[in-house]
Fold this sequence. Notes:
By secondary structure, the protein is α+β, with helices and mostly antiparallel strands. It has helices spanning 14-21, 27-30, 110-139, and strands at 2-11, 34-39, 48-53, 59-67, 71-78, 81-93, 96-106.
Amino acid sequence: xxxxxxxxxxxxxxxxxxxxxxxxxxxxxxxxxxxxxxxxxxxxxxxxxxxxxxxxxxxxxxxxxxxxxxxxxxxxxxxxxxxxxxxxxxxxxxxxxxxxxxxxxxxxxxxxxxxxxxxxxxxxxxxxxxxxxxxxxxxx
Length: 140
């Protein structure tokens, strides 16, 4: 397994940040990493979605973990393996929230993933954190 992640501290209401972050169909409107996204049904483990990230191929994913206003995770298939993403939201008080994203690449695709996508994904994580804060402020 190969993994990487990033974190940042943003400001906002944890309820609004969670609502924005888990509104998958709305991602393309505010997240510079996402070009298209679809999701139907309740945001619960086993639910499926589809997204087209900027600079990467589209694909389906399955929600695997949901702890409201704290964590959600998903998995997607990649050639000869799986890609797992984990998103965490930790209220720090005074309207501050530590947000983090961790990506795990399972299977032999890890070294190629590292060479092609990791640098862009790391940069996009920080853009997404900032955009999440801005969108939550706009909706709040």
